[in-house]
Amino acid sequence: MNNLIFLHNLSLETHLEDDCLLVLVTSHQIPDPDAIISFIYQGIISLKNPALKIIRIFGHEDGKNFPSWIKEINLQPELNLVKSQRNTNKIRIKLSWLTMSFPLALGALGGLYWLMEMIVWKNNGNLTDFSWFNSQPNPRSISPQNTPKIDLKQALKEGKEASDLGKLAQTEAEWNQVESQWSNAIATLSSIPQTSSEYETAQIKIQEYQKNLSQAQKQPEYVRQGTNQATEAVKLGKSAKTQTEWKTVANHWEKAIATLKEVKIEDTDYIEAQEKLEEYEQYYLAIQDKLEMSGMTLIKTISGNISPKSIVYSGKGLFFAQNMMYRHNITVYDQNYNLVKTISDQVKLSDFGYQDYTGIYQGSPVEVAFSPNGQYAWVSNYQMYGKEFQNPGSDRCVISSNYDPSFLYRIDTKTLNIDQVISVGSVPKYVAISPDNRFVLTSNWCSGDISIINTENNQEIKRILVGAYPRGIAIDKKSEKAYIAIMGSRDIAILNLKDYSVNWLKNIGLSPRHLVLDSDNEHLYVSLNGDGEVARINLNSMDIVKIKTGNAPRSLVLSKTGKYLYVVNYNSNTVSKVRTIDLKIIQTVNTSAHPIGITYDPQKQEVWVACYSGNILIFKDEE
Fold first, then answer.
1. What string of DSSP letters covers 311-373?
2. What pTM was estimated for this model as a whole?
């Protein structure tokens, strides 16, 4: 019967000392303690033999000098519990072990049946001693006098091995080995009895090793996954030749980088993740250089009776171009470059509740922002034209509240009609809508403040003074903070949308104009019109990196994935394509005179550029 057990990679040997049965279970890997103890316990209990009081089980791995674990079963009816150094509360049968190791389980049951037969014979008087045990070939005696010595030194050695492996582990198999080593060390420590002088130290070490085991199982998961992606990238990169194959390599590096970025600063493997991240980003950039040989390609030019100050994509298939006071209209295009409608900026203000204004008035569209669902377009008007508007502001105004106010239009994107007008400050420039759709903000150039409109009643509820010449606005994804470029300074205001307090990012660069936040709200990009540069601000570390793109950089837009930033350079008549990961200019393309507005269509991966000189250029640029 023992030979049958060996066929299933499990060896079971026994020795009876008075009322204590010693059982040695050996396998090519550490025997599962919970499953084996359950088999033996249930089998012995079914015998109902009062002479047997204690079973002591040793789990042993081939090639080891010490048992991996020791379990003791007390069969006294008044106790009826299983003593376990790992778990003293209950016996747990691992169903997954039974399912995955069914042949092994059968072997164990066969050996247990044979063991119980031996016990019955002993207590019936048919067998007077276990002399057969010591007569077996190459026996491994486990009598109390010869029980292998368990000591702290061995456990510490195993702990060091686990720690050393953890520093080098990269693959899934290597991390599994680390977990196994920590488990071995814990098992060895758990085997030190309470009577030992090393017991208390062992208990302290068990707590330490349990944390290390948990860390090996949990925290390195992102590092492990990232490393696996990197390993695959290196493997594929050795044979990649075509553009498609290199894109696959880049995708693996990109996934590796994204995974490592998930490691939090409080995690123990954060430093390791940062080191790998720096290395992986260099490899990724090298691959990107191969892919970026081709880039922005001009595919369409839209002309006509236009002089666009800005161009913005709705996200729902429409593009709005604001044609200022020079054309007094907004031209709307679809994704096939067709003109859908020309919307006049003429309004009758009294129809919208402003009874002090009689007659028809004209506006002068500057910028537009779309509500998150694309239902409405909110358009700012540089100034209003009509008999009541006699003191308009200008680009060279002095900050004052004495200039004429202006109005914000709301356009229904289904009907393409103006359905609301709202009074704001003087010379409103940029418009932004909070992601939760609660607020619309406009930057009022000549009154030096920010108008905050409540979208529930379409009324201005606050006007916050921020200083000379506010322009670009970017609102974080939580709708808690609005970043505002103060173009008459070197600073960016931070408006708290909960209590309306203002803080500052100081001395960023000369004449900050346009702002863009990335999708994670980790980086803020700003065009520095006076310096001819674009800055990237890390809002966590406050590190600032700058790149010179051209003369008078104005509007910015990010690509769909955030890999690229597109910048229009007003006086250079160019667009710069900037790689965001290292702020490197990948490509510069020429445009018509005075490019000033820019937007991006993520569905078609196209860049639309508004040129003040009278046309709109569309560039194809696949990521």
1. EEE-SSSEEEEE-IIIIIEEEEEETTS-EEEEEE--B-GGGGT-TT--S-BB--EEEEEE-TT
2. 0.60
